[in-house]
Design a protein that fits this description.
The complex is a heterodimer of chains A (about 400) and B (about 400). By secondary structure, chain A is mainly α. Chain A is built from 13 helices and no strands. Chain A has one domain (about 85-375). Chain B is an alpha+beta fold and about 400 residues long. In chain B, a hairpin with a 2-residue loop joins strand 7 and strand 8. Classes of the chains: A mainly alpha (about 400), B alpha+beta (about 400).
């Protein structure tokens, strides 16, 4: 980036100072990434979520705007931009206005350290994963701010639920990162990926039973941090009206949801990076561009797999209660995550080179589980198709 | 902001202030327009954190003066009002009102009419339970189950539309019979609907019956004892969930319920999980009843052959003076029911739906009083909610299946 601007300055003869040019370049590039990639992606995730739900729930879902309703997110965004921005009289106007921006900033900032491909990362920070954990918890500040400033009891309950939930689940999420950090010896996102290979046996999740457990813990904890079902208590629509977002309307309200969908991608990216080998693909070509595209595609597929799983879970599972949420976190997840950390360390001391046999065994176990699950799903799908022809809705 | 006071004086008389490190008591008015308070109801809650320490239930937002309205028209004109009592199962209301009026008038309807009434009552019960179960599941977050159940209910509603011409405002019953006979393809479509409902119940069972999160949300929540349930006058699935085997279809058979075999599922604890299971099993039992009745029903008339009770055929009306007079008298004066009074109750989807009818011998009801099943549960609701959390309100209220039209009348 810096080099690019330097070369640009050298070829042109504007009287711009170097620092100003850097600033301009940064803002321009940032805007390009945010508006050209992150926000559309969050929007498209919303479309995808609605379509996936519709398929699961035997509905049609949005299918009017664009092919298959693909542009629905754009239409929704436009509609919400044009809506009146209502600020309740009793609300604290400054905090009320500020809250959605903080939430969005929290999730957008996470993209800085997400490694989309070997050479496609905005900044490969040496504290990458720590940075991501830190900025994604910025969301809680915004949510709490929204809940408090709305001056509405539903909002306050939602905000407080959210604060306690995110802060609690930060601990198992953080503890589940440590086994990976121990294995790779670095906090850098690229470093973690480079420590793994493209083949599943080389992934961190199959290193030992402890990392496999850490992988599952991590996904559950991240779902809770992202306010996703079964942990979507802060905005439990049937309990708290709309939780912290009750008083929000128009674009401000949409920003909260944008952050939620965007966060879903961040969750998937963290899972792919830490445990699933990130962008690693077999070195099939020397062409850097082609390789980068393949890496990007691989990372995207892995990420969206987890995004899809989150949608699937949301359509299937009920939501837990506050006390159950807390007991799950403190009584089960924190101890298990702790054991995972020490267990991984133990494995590393006993077999410093790692055991290929164990990796293959764990891989086989996972495969066995997936096959069993696939057969079951297949059975039920066939069964439901058979009944569809018998009991289909008949015209009147 | 929203914190009111730690002053125990704000509690109701008789409420013990909770002394475990009382933070501050928050008053929260849940409803009448809250996503979970369907049927329009208001909970005036006092909360300690998320724990409900006092609850004051307000009903009556949907009061339309049903009982008074009934006195204004003829007996037949009352029937459309009964559609709007429990709008999730309007056919049951229709038929129970007609049964009550027929008993008062001393009329016996033909067998086929009784069969049809029983079949359609059970169909409505299935639709009602599907609504209740599906929506309760949706409210605790299992959205898909709700959609599956609504899809099955949709088939039943379509069938209802096919038979009666309407999904909710059916007005299918008449004193002394039915408006018309069943369509020819009824049995085939009913069996298809039963098959689909069974599939849906199987799916729901797989998704919920062993779903740990769902069980944790339902089990041990909203408990009320057997004795309290009886003393509050609660009937139906809520009573059976506490372990009392009381079902008017079994205990005081009416229509054709004495000709079918079915079980009365009961619970043990009287919590939401028992209520859910009881309703769930009742759907299965109702489907069995329908299948048995479909095998027994035989062709025949669906109305009494008595021009003072049921309007004569149009052919008679147009071609004979007696027929024309009979139609005129029924429309203008109404069905003349001998002076007297009767209380007749049947098992509606939510419990004992009773009609207390008083006739002064004219063609109009002198008094129509409805005993709505869910009104009594509303009285006990506070007892079920206190001590639980906000989230428990949703599952308890969902399982009570309060229907505004019937509760507030």
């Amino acid at each position: 980036m810096q080099g690019f601007i330097d070369s640009l300055l050298a070829t042109t003869t504007t009287g711009l100072s170097r620092e100003l040019a850097y600033l301009g370049g940064m803002i321009g590039f940032g805007a390009l990434v945010v508006f050209g990639f992150i926000l559309p992606m969050a929007g498209i995730t919303s479309w995808l979520e609605r379509r996936v739900w519709a398929k699961i729930q035997s509905r049609v879902g949005p299918n009017r705007v664009g092919p298959g309703g693909f542009l629905q997110w754009l239409a929704d965004g436009l509609k919400n931009l044009l809506k009146e921005d209502v600020i309740p009289e009793a609300a604290d106007p400054t905090l009320f206005r500020l809250a959605p921006y903080i939430v969005v900033a929290g999730f957008v900032a996470a993209f800085v350290a997400i490694p989309f491909a070997g050479s496609l990362i905005i900044a490969d920070l040496n504290i990458g994963i720590l940075y991501i954990s830190a900025v994604t918890s910025l969301v809680v500040v915004g949510i709490l701010m929204a809940g408090w400033s709305s001056n509405n009891r539903w909002s306050m309950l939602g905000g407080i639920r959210s604060a306690s939930q995110i802060i609690s689940y930060e601990i198992p999420a953080g503890l589940s990162v440590f086994p990976v950090v121990l294995l790779s010896g670095t906090l850098s996102m690229q470093g973690i990926i480079e420590n793994q290979g493209w083949a599943p046996v080389d992934w961190h999740m199959f290193h030992s039973p402890f990392t496999l457990a850490a992988f599952l813990m991590s996904y559950i904890a991240l779902l809770a941090e992202g306010n996703r079902t079964p942990f979507d208590l802060p905005e439990a629509e049937s309990e708290l009206v709309a939780g912290f977002a009750t008083e929000y309307s128009g674009m401000r309200s949409l920003l909260f949801f944008l952050a939620e969908w965007g966060n879903l991608y961040v969750i998937g990216a963290i899972m792919a990076t830490l445990f699933m080998g990130g962008w690693q693909v077999p070195a099939f070509t020397d062409n850097v561009v082609l390789l980068t595209v393949a890496q990007f595609g691989m990372f995207f597929a892995k990420t969206y797999f987890w995004v899809f799983v989150a949608m699937w879970i949301r359509a299937t599972l009920p939501r837990v209660r506050v006390d159950q949420l807390m007991s799950l976190c403190w009584k089960y997840m924190v101890p298990i995550a702790m054991v995972n950390m020490f267990g991984t360390a133990l494995v590393m001391v006993v077999i410093p080179e790692g055991s290929r046999l164990m990796s293959y065994a764990l891989c086989g176990l996972m495969l066995f589980g997936l096959v069993r699950f696939g057969r079951r799903v297949n059975y039920h799908l066939k069964r439901s198709r058979r009944y569809d022809t018998v009991g289909a809705i008949m015209p009147v | 902001m929203s914190v009111i006071s730690k002053d125990p004086a704000l509690l109701h008389d008789g409420d013990e202030p909770d002394n475990r490190a009382i933070s501050e008591i928050v008053e929260l008015q849940m409803g009448p327009s809250h996503p979970a308070t369907h049927g329009t109801i208001k909970f005036n809650l006092k909360l300690d954190g998320e724990t409900v320490i006092a609850c004051d239930t307000e009903v009556g937002y949907l009061h339309r003066g049903f009982e008074k309205m009934c006195e204004q028209g003829t007996w037949t004109q009352t029937i459309p009002y009964t559609d709007r009592l429990n709008y999730a199962s309007p056919l049951i209301n229709n038929f129970l009102f007609c049964e009550a009026a027929e008993r008062l008038a001393g009329v016996t309807v033909p067998e086929r009419c009784s069969y049809i009434r029983t079949i359609l009552s059970e169909m409505s019960r299935v639709a009602d339970h599907l609504t209740c179960l599906g929506m309760s599941a949706t409210e605790v977050g299992a959205i898909s189950v709700g959609f599956y159940m609504v899809e099955a209910r949709e088939i039943l509603y379509n069938l209802s539309q096919h038979i009666t011409g309407a999904r909710v405002t059916v007005s299918y019953g008449r004193i002394g019979g039915l408006t018309r006979d069943l369509p020819d393809d009824f049995e085939e479509r009913m069996r298809a609907a039963i098959a689909h409902t069974r599939t849906v119940m199987g799916d729901a069972e797989k998704l919920l019956e062993r779903n740990r999160i769902f069980i944790q949300r339902m089990a041990g929540v909203g408990i009320i004892s057997k004795e309290d349930t009886i003393s509050y006058g609660i009937t139906g699935p809520l009573l059976r969930a506490t372990g009392v085997r009381r079902d008017l279809r079994k205990d005081e058979p009416y229509m054709m319920y004495d000709r079918v075999e079915f079980n009365v599922p009961v619970g043990t604890k009287g919590d939401n999980w028992d209520r859910f299971s009881v309703r769930f099993e009742e759907v299965i039992e109702s489907l069995k009843i329908i299948e048995q009745l479909l095998g027994q029903i035989e062709p025949g008339p669906v109305k009494v052959d008595d021009p003072t009770i049921y309007m004569p055929d149009k052919a008679k009306v147009y071609n004979s003076i007696e027929g024309l007079m009979a139609q005129f008298k029924i429309v203008i004066e109404g069905v003349r029911i001998p002076a007297g009074e009767i209380y007749f109750a049947g098992e509606a989807a939510n419990g004992e739906l009773g009609f207390f009818l008083v006739s002064d011998g004219s063609g109009r009801p002198y008094r129509v009083r409805v005993r709505p099943p869910c009104f009594y549960a509303m009285g006990a609701l506070a007892q079920m909610l206190v001590g639980g959390g906000i989230a428990d309100i949703i599952s308890t209220f969902g399982m009570i299946n309060m229907i505004g039209g019937e509760c507030d009348r």
